[in-house]
Write a structure and sequence with these properties.
The chain contains 15 helices and 17 strands. It is α/β, with parallel strands linked by helices. Helix 13 packs across helix 15. The structure holds ligand 7TS.
């Protein structure tokens, strides 16, 4: 039985691909060979979650069959191996985000938990009555509700950067909102409902001029582009493993060490302490202070494998491939009579949202599903975006590294079927 560290990244993945070989890549994802309703699966719901390559599946299998053990506590052989693999994945995550130190990488359940951690730990310690927190009008609910909870707890106010009709942030409005009461800024790097890539570096620079820390919700950015937290100079960065071809239930919170050091723990329990007495408890050093309890060890190791996989293919190639797909799909969908694309920002990644005159998005989703095409229809956990555009919901196509132009053609055919049925 192979152990985690003995699983090779297949040579095919290691080759420096002059040409992005999507056919070869698809072979790494057995689920893509599935049929749905008797039709070949066309999986275009990658913003919700991505499929997993065999490297990740094999790694999980290897962990549970050859290495399963708790981390950081046993001195026995298996525990040491599990700990090495677990901490190895932290080093991979550090590299993935270009962080300067593994102490700045905290394992959490996902983007949602990462934002809640910052809101409750940083927020409750440093944000007070009358202070202001700025988010944007295109946030996922997980970057709205944790701040509303905090505001209720401490008496702070939420301020919202509006967006224009293309789904771009109004940066002059952001500048107007920033003031001496602003104590935190939290915005999406890429919008899950619109696909807009926000000018996050500029947002960080403007906020830092007033000494205001910035959290970037990278759930929809990390799968599609190279993220360099040092270059962005953001204070916190959050993303979910399951959207970057890793397991569910695991994600990363990056935080600048200086801030994480100053923050109180989010949860108490095992592993996050150095000494416990009934009089006083001393907390563990970073990042363990924020990792109470037995972590999702398999998830962490699986995420490490997903990062290996993405690195082996190369983020530059992935970005270029997906940009091409998005441009192709936009070109194919735009001319369809009655179809309106929601989210037409100049900078977009991964996501194409649309509505079809006279057809509810759920009906679009249901009919295309019968054709084997998986898309998402709904408010995408971004209800304020729907309100801004005056629609109850949208149909959303979102791309992953394994999608093809032929799949986009399949989608277009399925949309014509929708028009046939409802037209
Ligand atoms: N932030 C953004 C921008 C997201 O797109 C999502 C999930 C989250 C946060 C929350 O991530 P989680 O892994 O903690 O749930 N977005 C979606 C979506 O667009 N469809 O399903 C989940």
């Amino acid at each position: 039985m192979k152990a985690v560290h003995e699983i090779p990244v297949r040579d095919a993945w290691k080759t420096d691909r002059a040409a992005y070989d999507v056919t070869k890549i698809r072979e790494d994802f057995p689920i893509l060979k599935r049929k749905v309703h008797g039709k070949p699966l066309v999986y275009l719901d990658n913003a919700a979650t991505t499929q997993k390559p065999m490297l990740v599946v094999d790694t999980l299998h290897a962990y549970y069959t050859a290495e399963n053990s708790n981390v950081h506590r046993g001195i026995h052989f298996l525990s040491e191996q599990a700990t090495t693999a677990y901490e190895g994945a932290r080093a991979k995550a550090k590299g993935f985000l270009d962080a300067s130190d593994t102490r700045e990488i905290v394992f959490v359940r996902g983007t949602t938990e990462a934002i809640n951690l910052v809101a409750q730990s940083y927020g409750r310690a440093f944000i007070k009555q009358g202070d202001e927190i700025i988010i944007s009008a295109m946030e996922h609910h997980s970057n709205i509700v944790p701040w509303q909870i905090l505001c209720e707890q401490v008496g702070a106010m939420l301020r919202v950067i509006p967006i224009n009709h293309d789904g771009e942030l109004l940066m002059n409005e952001f500048e107007r909102l920033l003031n001496e009461k602003t104590k935190f800024v939290s915005v999406a790097h890429v919008s899950n409902a619109l696909g807009t890539v926000n000018p996050v570096k500029e947002i960080v620079q403007m906020s830092h001029r007033l000494g205001v820390p910035v959290l970037l919700d990278g759930a929809q950015a990390a799968p599609h582009m190279k993220v360099d937290v040092q270059e962005l100079d953001c204070d916190f960065y959050a993303f979910s493993g399951h959207k970057v071809y890793g397991p569910t239930g695991i994600g990363i919170l990056y935080g600048k060490a200086r801030l994480l050091e100053a923050m109180p723990p989010y949860q108490g329990g095992g592993d996050m302490i150095s000494l416990v007495t009934f009089e006083k408890t001393h907390y563990n050093e970073l990042p363990y202070k924020f990792e109470a309890g037995t972590p999702h060890i398999a998830g962490v190791i699986g995420l490490g494998a997903a990062i290996d996989y993405v690195n082996a293919i190369g983020m530059a190639g992935i970005s270029a491939h997906e940009r091409e797909l998005l441009a192709y799909a936009t070109g194919e969908l735009s001319p369809i009579a009655g179809l309106r694309i929601i989210g037409t920002a100049r900078e977009k990644a991964g996501v194409l949202s649309f509505v079809l005159e006279g057809v509810h998005p759920h009906d679009i989703g249901t009919v295309v599903d019968r054709e084997g095409v998986a898309i998402r229809a709904g408010h995408h956990c971004a209800m304020p975006v729907m309100q801004r555009f005056g629609v109850p919901a949208t149909a959303r196509v979102s791309f992953g590294l394994y999608n093809t132009k032929e799949e986009v053609d399949g989608l277009v055919k399925a949309i014509h079927k929708v028009i046939q049925v409802f037209g």
